[in-house]
Amino acid sequence: MKIPRLLLTLGLAFGALAPLSAHEVVGMQMYSVRALAKENVDQAFAQVHQWGIKEVELAGLYGLTAEQMRDKLAQYDLKAVGAHFGYEVLQSSLDEVIREARVLNVKYVVCPWLQHSARPFDKDYALEVAKNFNLWGLKLNEQGIKFGYHTHGFEFTPIPGGNGDTPFDVLVQNTDPKFVTFEMDVFWVWSSGADPFALLKRYPDRWSLAHLKDMRKGDARDLHGAAKVEQNVSIGDGQVPWPALLKDLGKHGVHHLLIEDETADPMKNIPTSLQYLASIGYRP
Question: Does the pLDDT of residue 8 top 50, yes or no?
Answer without folding.
Answer: no
